[in-house]
């Protein structure tokens, strides 16, 4: 595996290796109050910390990717963020990859702050990857995309989310410029779904960094459960050449069969796109608080995603 300038292989390469070792599942660390209670913990920052660090302890070496949901730590203010900081540090030390699900997106100058907060080597909250919202334009995310390239990290940009309300914006047809605002065939203005225009902009970014330290650093979020006509996401992902995060498994109704129907084999979308990493949080976390039981549930779910 090639090393980037910071002595770290590109995030997509590290994710591929982790998926090959443990299976494609990403476990969401979502410390909802009901789950904390079910685990015999108080719904406070201390409970969130015990829950989250327990998940890391149970699953490090058994899962490819962990995805803490930042909102559920922010609920408890500074103490919640301190719990998240320690959870990310545990994961780093245990060698399990993380994606901070913060869904950040702002004008470029502010975006630089968000990028440093989550993707800089010396950031207290540094994760291996970060989720981003492109509502201010994919181009506004450049500080995070650039820092991910520079530090061997990754981003997952919301393209087609799993919630039913998403279609109004994401499925709208728009004449959208490419990430460079050009009228060229690569980034040209043509009618396409907003979600597809996000994918196309990420593909452009990945093409510019192919085989370099930022190889495949721009990933997409393509949810599993949106729509009423089956699970087909309807997007052309073949040129993305980056990883795909697929939330919606379990509590939102998605099944391993839906993953297979929508994405085929989880690393076979053509053009190098992948790996495809389905996410389950609430459902799989109900297997705790027994850490062995949680590990077994994750193993079984990984088995049904690959079997
Ligand atoms: O389109 C999206 C983007 C992100 N999410 C997040 O994933 C988890 C899913 O949790 P479950 O308990 O498995 O439903 C959660 O943190 C969401 O904010 C998503 O669901 N859909």
The backbone outline, from C-alpha atoms, is globular
CATH H level: which superfamily? Aldolase class I
Task: Give the mean pLDDT.
Answer: 91
Q: For the largest sheet, list the strands in their spatial order.
A: 1-2-3-4-5-8-9-10
Active site: 103
Catalytic activity: orotidine 5'-phosphate + H(+) = UMP + CO2
EC number: 4.1.1.23
Pathway: Pyrimidine metabolism; UMP biosynthesis via de novo pathway; UMP from orotate: step 2/2
Explain the overall architecture.
- This is Orotidine 5'-phosphate decarboxylase.
- GO terms for molecular function: orotidine-5'-phosphate decarboxylase activity.
- With 307 residues, the protein is α/β, with parallel strands linked by helices.
- The protein is 40% helix and 16% strand.
- The chain has a single domain (11-306), classed as Aldolase class I (TIM Barrel, Alpha-Beta Barrel), CATH 3.20.20.70.
- The chain has twelve helices and ten strands.
- The strands form two sheets. The protein has an eight-stranded parallel beta barrel, surrounded by six helices. It has a two-stranded antiparallel sheet with strand order 6-7.
- It is globular, with a radius of gyration of 18 Å.
- The chain starts with 10 loop residues before the first helix and ends with a helix.
- The ligand O=c1ccn([C@@H]2O[C@H](COP(=O)(O)O)[C@@H](O)[C@H]2O)c(=O)[nH]1 binds at residues 28, 30, 69, 101, 161-162, 221, 223, 247-248, 250-252, 279-282.
